[in-house]
Amino acid sequence: MNYPGNLKYTKDHEWIRVEGDEAYVGITDYAQNELGEIVFIDISTEGETLNREDVFGSLEAVKTVSDIYMPVSGQVLKVNAELEECPELINEDAYGRGWIIKIAMTDPAELDGLMSAEEYEESL
Q1: Separation of alpha carbons 124 and 59, rounded Å
Q2: Residue 117 lies in a domain
Protein backbone atom coordinates (compact mmCIF):
# COMPACT_ATOMS: atom_id res chain seq x y z
CA MET A 1 0.00 0.00 0.00
CA ASN A 2 1.05 3.54 -0.73
CA TYR A 3 0.71 6.45 1.76
CA PRO A 4 2.44 9.61 0.46
CA GLY A 5 4.21 11.61 3.15
CA ASN A 6 2.99 14.99 1.86
CA LEU A 7 -0.65 14.21 2.73
CA LYS A 8 -2.64 14.16 5.97
CA TYR A 9 -5.02 11.28 6.74
CA THR A 10 -8.26 10.68 8.67
CA LYS A 11 -9.45 7.72 10.71
CA ASP A 12 -12.15 7.27 8.05
CA HIS A 13 -9.50 6.74 5.32
CA GLU A 14 -9.69 10.10 3.55
CA TRP A 15 -6.56 12.03 2.58
CA ILE A 16 -6.06 15.78 2.14
CA ARG A 17 -3.40 17.60 0.12
CA VAL A 18 -3.10 21.25 1.11
CA GLU A 19 -2.26 23.95 -1.46
CA GLY A 20 -2.42 27.32 0.31
CA ASP A 21 -5.93 27.84 1.74
CA GLU A 22 -7.36 25.23 -0.60
CA ALA A 23 -7.02 21.48 -0.53
CA TYR A 24 -7.79 18.34 -2.51
CA VAL A 25 -9.55 15.43 -0.82
CA GLY A 26 -9.76 11.76 -1.77
CA ILE A 27 -9.77 8.29 -0.28
CA THR A 28 -6.67 6.30 0.59
CA ASP A 29 -5.15 3.37 -1.24
CA TYR A 30 -6.29 1.20 1.67
CA ALA A 31 -9.91 2.42 1.35
CA GLN A 32 -10.14 1.90 -2.41
CA ASN A 33 -8.63 -1.58 -2.01
CA GLU A 34 -11.15 -2.50 0.71
CA LEU A 35 -14.09 -1.13 -1.29
CA GLY A 36 -13.11 -2.91 -4.49
CA GLU A 37 -14.05 -1.66 -7.93
CA ILE A 38 -15.68 1.77 -7.63
CA VAL A 39 -18.54 2.08 -10.11
CA PHE A 40 -20.31 5.32 -9.14
CA ILE A 41 -19.64 8.50 -7.19
CA ASP A 42 -22.36 10.74 -5.74
CA ILE A 43 -21.32 14.22 -4.62
CA SER A 44 -24.18 16.70 -4.24
CA THR A 45 -22.44 19.14 -1.89
CA GLU A 46 -20.62 21.35 -4.43
CA GLY A 47 -20.87 24.96 -3.27
CA GLU A 48 -21.81 23.99 0.30
CA THR A 49 -19.79 24.76 3.42
CA LEU A 50 -19.47 21.70 5.65
CA ASN A 51 -17.93 20.94 9.03
CA ARG A 52 -15.12 18.52 9.73
CA GLU A 53 -16.43 14.92 9.64
CA ASP A 54 -19.64 15.87 7.78
CA VAL A 55 -20.56 13.53 4.92
CA PHE A 56 -19.79 15.21 1.59
CA GLY A 57 -20.79 12.34 -0.69
CA SER A 58 -20.73 8.61 -1.27
CA LEU A 59 -18.93 6.03 -3.35
CA GLU A 60 -20.62 2.98 -4.76
CA ALA A 61 -18.47 -0.08 -5.28
CA VAL A 62 -19.42 -3.52 -6.53
CA LYS A 63 -19.50 -4.71 -2.88
CA THR A 64 -21.00 -1.74 -1.00
CA VAL A 65 -21.87 1.95 -0.75
CA SER A 66 -19.67 4.06 1.53
CA ASP A 67 -20.03 7.63 2.81
CA ILE A 68 -17.04 9.95 2.48
CA TYR A 69 -16.29 12.58 5.11
CA MET A 70 -14.76 16.06 5.23
CA PRO A 71 -11.27 15.87 6.78
CA VAL A 72 -11.50 19.57 7.77
CA SER A 73 -14.22 22.21 7.66
CA GLY A 74 -14.59 24.09 4.39
CA GLN A 75 -16.53 24.93 1.27
CA VAL A 76 -16.69 22.36 -1.51
CA LEU A 77 -15.37 24.34 -4.48
CA LYS A 78 -15.21 21.67 -7.14
CA VAL A 79 -15.95 18.01 -7.77
CA ASN A 80 -13.54 16.04 -9.97
CA ALA A 81 -15.57 15.91 -13.22
CA GLU A 82 -13.42 13.06 -14.58
CA LEU A 83 -14.93 10.73 -11.98
CA GLU A 84 -18.40 11.09 -13.49
CA GLU A 85 -17.31 9.13 -16.57
CA CYS A 86 -14.43 7.19 -14.97
CA PRO A 87 -15.03 6.50 -11.26
CA GLU A 88 -12.42 3.73 -11.51
CA LEU A 89 -9.74 6.48 -11.51
CA ILE A 90 -10.03 6.28 -7.71
CA ASN A 91 -8.89 2.64 -7.88
CA GLU A 92 -6.19 3.35 -10.46
CA ASP A 93 -4.70 6.59 -9.06
CA ALA A 94 -6.15 7.31 -5.59
CA TYR A 95 -3.71 10.16 -4.83
CA GLY A 96 -3.51 11.73 -8.28
CA ARG A 97 -6.22 11.80 -10.93
CA GLY A 98 -8.59 10.07 -8.48
CA TRP A 99 -8.99 13.11 -6.18
CA ILE A 100 -12.66 13.63 -5.33
CA ILE A 101 -13.24 17.25 -4.24
CA LYS A 102 -11.38 20.53 -3.96
CA ILE A 103 -12.21 22.62 -0.90
CA ALA A 104 -11.54 26.06 0.57
CA MET A 105 -10.58 25.38 4.20
CA THR A 106 -12.35 27.52 6.79
CA ASP A 107 -10.19 26.38 9.73
CA PRO A 108 -6.70 25.22 8.66
CA ALA A 109 -5.85 24.60 12.34
CA GLU A 110 -8.00 21.44 12.08
CA LEU A 111 -5.17 19.90 10.01
CA ASP A 112 -3.29 19.46 13.30
CA GLY A 113 -5.83 16.80 14.32
CA LEU A 114 -5.12 14.62 11.29
CA MET A 115 -2.58 11.80 10.99
CA SER A 116 0.75 11.76 9.21
CA ALA A 117 1.43 8.96 6.72
CA GLU A 118 3.32 7.03 9.42
CA GLU A 119 0.54 7.46 11.98
CA TYR A 120 -2.09 6.41 9.43
CA GLU A 121 -0.17 3.30 8.44
CA GLU A 122 0.25 2.35 12.11
CA SER A 123 -3.51 2.80 12.66
CA LEU A 124 -4.28 0.11 10.09
Answers
A1: 21
A2: no
